């Protein structure tokens, strides 16, 4: 099965009332991936999601609503971030000139065998060891 790894920004758009077009697109790709059993995220994504939706949205979610969303995502497929991934991300960020956090997302996606990474943060169409970067909002 071809897994699709979701970066934090795609999940945040599910709750962003200031970006209705992106919210609609995020709902479509999220719904499709969940329905087909291809959705996967990491514990890093859960952490970043909680902070972003409670502090950085124009209309932030309450802590209770954000926790409910995190619990909902956690019922799907979540992979933990481990020390080997952190070390690999340090190396990838250094050699590829990308942020550590983006490199850690890539390492988590690769660790579960994902073939797609949906994100706004990396160049659309790039490949990292069999993982294709896709910006669902283009």
From TrEMBL:
Q: Which GO terms describe its molecular function?
A: hydrolase activity; magnesium ion binding; RNA nuclease activity; toxin activity
Annotated keywords: Hydrolase, Magnesium, Metal-binding, Nuclease, Toxin, Toxin-antitoxin system
A Pfam family it matches? PIN
Cofactor(s) of this protein: Mg(2+)
Residues noted as binding Mg(2+) in the record, renumbered to the chain: 7, 102
Where's the PIN domain?
Answer: 5-121
Q: Per the record's keyword annotation, is Glycoprotein included, yes or no?
A: no
* Keyword S-adenosyl-L-methionine included in the entry's annotation: no
Which family does the record assign? Belongs to the PINc/VapC protein family.
Known function: Toxic component of a toxin-antitoxin (TA) system. An RNase.
Its recorded name reads Ribonuclease VapC
The scientific name of the source species is Trichloromonas acetexigens
Q: What is the lineage of its organism?
A: Bacteria, Pseudomonadati, Thermodesulfobacteriota, Desulfuromonadia, Desulfuromonadales
Q: Which gene encodes it?
A: vapC
């Amino acid at each position: 099965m071809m897994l699709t790894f979701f970066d934090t920004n795609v999940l945040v758009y599910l709750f962003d009332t200031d970006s209705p077009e992106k919210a609609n697109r995020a709902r479509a790709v999220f719904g499709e991936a969940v329905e087909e059993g291809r959705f996967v995220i990491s514990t890093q994504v859960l952490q970043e999601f909680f902070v972003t939706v409670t502090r950085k949205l124009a209309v932030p979610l309450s802590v209770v609503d954000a926790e409910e969303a995190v619990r909902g995502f956690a019922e799907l497929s979540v992979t933990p971030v481990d020390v080997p991934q952190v070390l690999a991300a340090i190396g990838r960020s250094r050699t590829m000139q990308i942020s550590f956090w983006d490199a850690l997302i890539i390492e988590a996606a690769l660790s579960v065998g994902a073939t797609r990474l949906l994100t706004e943060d990396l160049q659309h169409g790039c490949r990292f060891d069999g993982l294709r970067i896709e910006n669902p909002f283009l």
